[in-house]
Amino acid sequence: MKSIPGIGLSDVQKVYSGPEGELWELVMGEQIHIGGFVSSMDLAEKAQIRQGMKGVDLCCCNGAGMRFLVRFRGVAKMTGVDATPKVIEHGRRRCADEGLADRIEFVHADVCDTGLPSECADFVWGEDAWCYVVDKPKLIAEAARLVHPGGVVAFTDWVEGPTGLTDAEAERFLRFMKFPNVQNIQGYSQLLADNGCHVALAEDTGRFPVYVDLYLDMLNKQLTYDALKIIGFDMALLEAMGKEMMFMRELAHARKIMQAIFVAPKTR
Question: What would the pLDDT profile of 29-87 be if each residue is shown by its tens digit?
């Protein structure tokens, strides 16, 4: 696992409380993860998320994943946990606007210590967000604590790929993305196994290169003005961010970073 010092929760809160978070949503939509609806449906099908289930979404952001699960998988109740008040506020408003507030609740808490009851969920859910969490062993332990035996921990995340990041590449990538560290498939799989989960699926989705190409195309060919408006028409800042995204695209095509999917039923 590659790590860098000096990145923590306050940095992530700053991103999603300000213009950087707005930029990510501009390019990726409310579902701020690679693959959007397609990725969510793929994860839900592979994890066998069914009608009537109750779930917990760790690092739920604005709740788009929970709204997807309630609308398209018939989930009866979702509880989302996030540490950034602004995204929770946005999420509650969007759920109310869509008539889903009675089935979706938000908890402002540390995802490594949610305060929720043990074994309260049929499944724990995450989409491309656990990369922001400093203490991944505690995160996985909390996810396993929340799901009952026979339930499932199901998530996608940005991970280090098989080619591997050099220290210099990791420093640049992690600092731009405000990730304190980046896990790999083997590392997450071991943490899940250590916490009583059987890793039924842990693999590269193959989506990262195609989608990062799409995001850059959208920024360069369609959304340039919209992006500039969000950052106060600072052209130099947009160009600098564009260079970092180009670097990220190079890493994705070289399989140094990727989006991985994990489905891990809890066995004990």
Answer: 999 999 999 999 999 999 999 999 999 999 999 999 999 999 999 999 999 999 999 99
State the greatest distance between any 2 C-alpha atoms of the chain, in Å, as a whole number.
54
Q: What is the domain extent for residue 118?
A: 2-265
Distance of alpha carbon 242 from alpha carbon 40, whole angstroms? 27
**CATH classification at residue 52:** 3.40.50.150
Question: Please, are residues 156 and 262 in contact by the beta-carbon 8 Å criterion?
Answer: yes
Tokens 């500039």 sit at which residue? 228
What is d(CA 144, CA 1) in angstroms, rounded to the nearest whole number?
21
Tokens representing residue 235 in the block: 């052209």
Say if residues 140 and 192 touch (Cβ distance below 8 Å).
yes
Q: Is the pTM of this model over 0.85?
A: yes
Residue 192, amino acid? L
Sequence-ordered list of residues with C-beta below 8 angstroms from that of 5, at least 6 positions apart, any chain: none
CA distance 163 to 234: 35
- In a 13 Å sphere around the CA of 138, the CA atoms on its Cβ side amount to 8
What is the torsional sign of CA 206, 84, 133, 60?
negative
Contact in structure between 29 and 62 (CB atoms under 8 Å): no
Number of domains in the chain: 1
| Cα angle 255, 240, 183; round to 5 | 35
